[in-house]
Amino acid sequence: MEQDIIIQSVRHWVETLVVDLNLCPFAKRELLNNRIRFSTTEVSTEQQLLQQLQTELALLTNDESIETTLLIHPNVLQNFYDYNEFLDVVEGLLIDLKLEGVFQIASFHPDYQFADTEPDDVENYTNRSPFPLLHIIREDSLEKAIANYPESDKIPERNIALLRHLGRDKMKALFQSHFDNASH
């Protein structure tokens, strides 16, 4: 799949699910200010992805104009369980690079499934994305945003309640729309 189509699909997902549903109350400002880097890679192995992640971390370290990066990797870690295990390797990389506490990685995957949920449970859509991706977040920015947001600890509960209210069929349709939009 062409990189522009992949990025368009993920951007549409950010706009319609993450921002419009306010799943992340901190995303809208960064999207409007064009401070989200949408980076897609054609790597096909976990080792190559780790190297690409290291490159993205270096870029963020040296470029303050980028607030956050979505590293989209459609050709590797398609299986959610493999992806989930890979997150431990990612944490190890942050430690090895002495970037733990500087950056954190949020996880999004088309088949995301929280522990103690069924694959089709609607709350899984809070972390479902069109393609597997690693979201690189600046820790200090996140801490400031959380400090200035009332009851930030209730965001996950609020998101789950919202998605349950919208229902599985509505969420499936919204989720599918980023693919339909990207193909036009």
Can you offer a commentary on this structure?
Strands 1-2-4-3 form a 4-stranded mixed β-sheet, sandwiched between helices. The longest helix is centred in the N-terminal third of the chain and has 17 residues, at 3-19. Helix 1 runs antiparallel to helix 7 (168-182) and helix 3 (46-62) packs across helix 4 (80-96). The protein has 184 residues and is of the alpha+beta class. 26% of the residues are buried. It is globular. The protein has one domain. It has helices at 3-19, 27-32, 46-62, 80-96, 139-147, 155-166, 168-182, and strands spanning 36-40, 68-72, 103-108, 133-138. The protein starts with a helix and ends with a helix. Helix content is 51%, strand content 12%.
Features:
184 residues, alpha+beta, four-stranded mixed sheet, 7 helices, 4 strands, globular
Compact summary:
The chain is of the alpha+beta class. The chain is 51% helix and 12% strand.
Structural class: alpha+beta
Q: Outline the low-pLDDT stretches.
A: none
CA radius of gyration? 16 Å
**Would you list the SSEs in sequence order as H and E?**
HHEHEHEEHHH
Major sheet: arrangement of strands: 1-2-4-3
Helix content: 40-55%
Tell me the total number of β-strands.
Answer: 4
How many separate domains make up the residues? 1
In what range is the share of β-strand residues? 5-15%
Overall pLDDT metric: 93
Tally of helical segments: 7
The dominant shape is: globular
Tell me about the largest β-sheet: 4 strands, mixed
**Termini gap:** 14 Å
